[in-house]
Amino acid sequence: MNVSRDLKLPHRFGAYMLFDRIGQGGMAEIFLARRATELGGGKLLVVKLILPVYAERAEFAEMLADEAKLAATLTHPNVVQIVDLGREEERLFIAMEYVEGFDLAALLKRCSKEKVPLPPEFALHIVLELLAGLDYAGKKKIVHRDVSPSNVLVSFDGEVKLCDFGIARANDAIESPTEAIKGKAGYMSPEHARGEALDARADVFAAGIILWELLAGRKLYRADAGDLIEQARTANVPDLAPRGLPNEEALFAIVKKALAPNRDERFASAGDFRRELHEWAISAKLVANPIKLGEWLTEHFGAELLAQRRARETAAKALDPSPQPARAIIESPHIKYKEEKSPESLSPIDVSPPSKSPPPTKEKSPPWTMIALGVVAIAVVAWLLVHR
Ligand SMILES: Nc1ncnc2c1ncn2[C@@H]1O[C@H](COP(=O)(O)OP(=O)(O)O)[C@@H](O)[C@H]1O
Ligand SMILES: [Mg+2]
Known about the structure:
Layout: E1 11-13, E2 16-24, E3 28-35, E4 45-50, H1 52-55, H2 58-71, E5 82-88, E6 91-97, E7 101-103, H3 104-114, H4 120-139, E8 152-155, E9 160-162, H5 168-173, H6 179-184, H7 190-193, H8 200-216, H9 228-234, H10 248-258, H11 270-283, H12 290-317, H13 324-330, H14 367-386
Antiparallel strand pairs: 1-2, 2-3, 3-4, 4-6, 5-6, 7-8, 8-9
Helix pairs in contact: 4-8, 4-11, 8-10, 10-11, 12-13
Bound molecules: adenosine-5'-diphosphate (ADP) and magnesium ion.
The site of adenosine-5'-diphosphate has 21 residues, from β2, β3, β4 and β6.
């Protein structure tokens, strides 16, 4: 019963004009939108429409609204900002900032498809940023409950933001296991899998799984290895294989502590986890920053960004008469590549093993610069010879 799958776009939805469908989860559909005011307003937003089957259930809808209200109070660079909550056409919706890039699940899929390993300094950076967002929420006693790669958004300018705050609790309250619940079992803490009350340490565990997977280059719990919830309950975490990182036993000890099955043995907060991981990253000289991550993403996946942006521009142009959304995308400061380059030239494939991949280097000067300098030098020499 998914009414809006047939939603014809663009679609006026209350104060918003939905013009592109960008995601579909277990409970909701995700649209790119802009304000439906006369002049539009250039800023793109994401509108998440909860599927009618959920919004119709009064108890669930109330819980969802309460949680989303709480989530809307979060303002932090590592948390997707909610800007509006409401009910329209009998549907609950959440409007939020648009993060242009990939979610971490999509990014990892592309990395493996293109054989571009994610360098360890960026893996660490993503987890450190995620932990900063979780620490902030944790201090407000807000537990995310569904920390997983698809809820970690990585923008093309290297920002990392956690999304999907505030609906997991309502989801947990549904008696029958839905696709959504099954989908997130891969990152569940053992206490969550046992159905116990959760605190911030459940999010610490999930972030620990993400770090483990980024270091291992594979999933921790696999559907083909049996029931995911059962695996989460047991929390049998294999030791990580050596990768040749500096002082990596210390790193592996941090991962192990985050993944302690007994939450009393875990880091007490995402902040504690972050502090130790950050100290290790400094000692190992594996500290990255958003600029470097953004450059790396653009270097390897710029062509896909361009294709995604063009498709969204086209959808935005269907919004008559204001051309603003298209401009908003084109003029975004996130563009770091030259649009006239052919897509092929934007994705060099780096097949070196992750532990040995070199830090991102600056783009080499194009050869024509050297040629131009050579021509000028010859001209100067010739002039000197003639005028001697
Ligand atoms: N604010 C956003 N900006 C960009 N992409 C988003 C945003 N919110 C969600 N998405 C994309 O849509 C997907 C599903 O959104 P999410 O809020 O996680 O819904 P669900 O509850 O279905 O998991 C995300 O994994 C991400 O790829
Ligand atoms: Mg999600």
